[in-house]
Design goal:
The complex is a heterodimer of chains A (about 240) and B (about 300). With about 240 residues, chain A is an alpha+beta fold. Helix content of chain A is about 30%, strand content about 40%. Chain A has two domains: about 5-200, Macroglobulin (MG2) domain (Immunoglobulin-like); about 205-240. Chain B has helices at about 15-30, 35-45, 50-75, 80-105, 110-140, 150, 175-190, 195-205, 210-235, 240-265, 270-290; strands at about 1-5, 10-15, 160-165, 170-175, 300. Chain B is mainly alpha-helical and about 300 residues long. Chain B contains eleven helices and five strands, in the order E-E-H-H-H-H-H-H-E-E-H-H-H-H-H-E. Classes of the chains: A alpha+beta (about 240), B mainly alpha (about 300). Chains A and B meet through strand 5, strand 6, helix 4, helix 5 and helix 6 of A and helix 3, helix 9, helix 10 and strand 5 of B.
């Protein structure tokens, strides 16, 4: 965390704790927007807040949801072939989980399923899905650092002020994210706050990607014309040489 | 120095891609082949997703085939009547191929099918070409080893739609070039190769066309087919990476000039033997990948929204 971030944290935290006696939980982020250009190699955001009630803090940061297909290769006549496949619907493309207590020591309730707290809950909507394929999906996402599970990373200053550094690797997809902060007291949800984060790809690369998807006809024509121009140019150059 | 490919969504070494373009350019200048057969597998080896590799190298071949075609047209080595028929078949074939491609991409078998087709086609062509160049090395004089299928199989000359091809000095059924064009169209869209690999032998050994007009006529057809494939891939699978194609192009344009000069100094038999060796190596490498245990048993794809 840089100095500016830390000062921001102190000032805001003091401000929040003074202002928010009435609310059981208040939290904020150092930044609501992440811009990805071609030189982006990951960033970290500071989440900070205050609890004004007893209980455990759980933080979940989620990326935009997509449908995933997980395929399993099997040997068919000596050749490795994609054989069985499973669909996972509305799975977050980014998922970071942290808590103020080891995750296993928290009292798990039905709420964890409906709020999708936990890595399994993240990929299996309402607990639906093949657990073996779900495990493969989670492992892959963890390997690419898009899923992280770091209990006890939340640190406290005194009883109420807390902070957490949320890592975003360089391969995060663009879209609308949210940082959801929960306060649990003995299995009961006593406070909650959701902070939106917008991740946007910027620059020439992002422009090309958007253009190729939004105006694919023009993009296709342009790709062909570009090749024809270079091909014709090369030929007339060669003629002169 | 790395450059980010917006459609492939990964970074590649800019000089690596330029070098790949240069090498394919040299080979296409030397041997008169499009070079797509080399680009696509190599792009796949360095980790570019197969669909992006295929679509982007089709885009590259538009340029290389146009500049090759213009050179052959200046020498009058193009049979336009034959070319148009090959083209008609090719348009249908390549459109069907792109449709097949997106179907296979959805079902998750596209990478496997691409590898299998490469291994089969390259294995066959590599072995035939290798044997032929060995044989002609022994004979010292280059003689046609095969007689054209149209003269060997009588039924081929009894098909309807008999047409005259004055430039090639042939009279045969229009259905034959249409069928050859169709097959090459499918290969272009599935493999990202120009199709010359399949079409040139087919034109010589099936139609019995004179060797002098074969390359120019094939290039004429390839320009339109690869342009069609590029366009259809861009609108259906969104896999044409324009940055990747532009890099490959830059390299191959320079390479083609160097290749033409080297090619004119080397005997054709050596060239063909070299080509056979390269093709067989690629086939073996891909075959090895099919049979060896993959690092990852599970593959994960994001379903199109």
């Amino acid at each position: 965390m840089n100095v500016r971030g830390f000062l921001l944290f102190i000032v805001s935290a003091l401000f929040i704790s003074g202002l928010a006696q009435a609310k059981p939980l208040v939290a904020d982020l150092s930044q609501y927007r992440i811009e990805i250009d071609s030189s982006f190699n990951g960033t970290r955001l500071l989440l900070f807040g205050s609890r004004n009630d007893i209980g455990d803090i759980v933080v979940v940061v989620r990326g935009p949801e997509r449908n995933f297909i997980v395929r399993r290769k099997e040997r068919v006549a000596g050749i490795w072939v994609n054989h069985r496949e499973r669909y996972f619907e509305n799975v977050p493309t980014y998922y970071a989980l942290a808590a103020s207590k080891p995750f296993s020591e928290l009292r798990h309730t039905e709420l964890f399923n409906s709020l999708r707290i936990g890595l399994k809950q993240a990929v299996m909507e309402n607990g639906v899905g093949d657990p073996v394929f779900a495990k493969a999906l989670i492992e892959r996402e963890q390997a690419s650092q898009l899923y992280s599970y770091e209990p006890q990373k939340i640190s406290f200053m005194g009883e109420s002020l807390f902070k957490l550094v949320v890592p975003f690797p360089d391969n995060i997809p663009g879209g609308d994210y949210s940082a959801d902060v929960y306060l649990f007291n003995d299995g009961q949800l006593t406070g909650m706050q959701s902070i939106p984060i917008h991740v946007q790809k910027i620059g020439f690369d992002a422009w090309i990607y958007d253009f190729a998807h939004a105006h694919s006809v023009l993009y296709g024509i342009f790709a062909v014309l570009l090749a024809l121009t270079i091909g014709w140019g090369a030929s007339s150059l060669m003629r002169r040489v | 120095m790395d450059i980010y490919l917006p459609i492939a969504e990964m970074s590649v070494n800019i000089f690596g891609i330029l070098a790949l373009g240069l090498i394919t350019g040299i080979l296409s200048g030397m041997l008169g082949v499009g070079g797509g057969f080399l680009t696509t597998p190599f792009l796949m080896f360095i980790g570019i997703p197969a669909p992006v590799a295929v679509a982007s190298s089709a885009n590259q071949i538009v340029a290389t085939s146009l500049s090759g075609f213009l050179a052959h047209r200046r020498r009058g080595n193009v049979d336009f009547r034959m070319g148009v028929l090959l083209l008609l078949g090719g348009m249908v074939g390549s459109s069907a191929g792109v449709w097949l491609f997106s179907l296979l991409k959805r079902s998750g078998h596209i990478d496997l099918v691409i590898s299998l087709l490469y291994v089969t086609l390259f294995g066959f062509i590599g072995v035939t070409m290798g044997l032929e160049s060995l044989r002609s090395l022994k004979q010292t004089h280059e003689q046609p080893i095969f007689t054209a299928a149209v003269t060997r199989f009588v039924w081929l000359s009894r098909l309807p739609l008999m047409t005259d091809f004055p430039r090639s000095k042939l009279r045969l059924s229009a259905l034959l070039p249409l069928a050859i064009g169709f097959c090459s169209g499918i290969l272009v869209s599935l493999l990202g190769i120009g199709g010359g690999f399949f079409m040139i032998p087919a034109m010589i050994y099936v139609l019995g066309m004179p060797t002098s007009v074969v390359i120019g006529t094939s290039l004429f057809q390839v320009i339109f087919i690869t342009a069609n494939v590029t366009f259809l891939q861009a609108i259906s699978t969104h896999t044409v990476d324009i940055i990747l194609a532009a890099l490959l192009l830059t390299g191959s344009v320079v390479g083609a000039q160097m290749g033409t000069r080297i090619g004119s100094r080397l005997p054709a038999v050596h060239l063909r033997g070299m080509l056979a060796f390269i093709v067989l190596t690629i086939a073996l490498k891909l075959a090895f990948g099919l049979f060896s245990t993959p690092d990852e048993i599970y593959s994960i794809t994001v379903d199109a929204p």
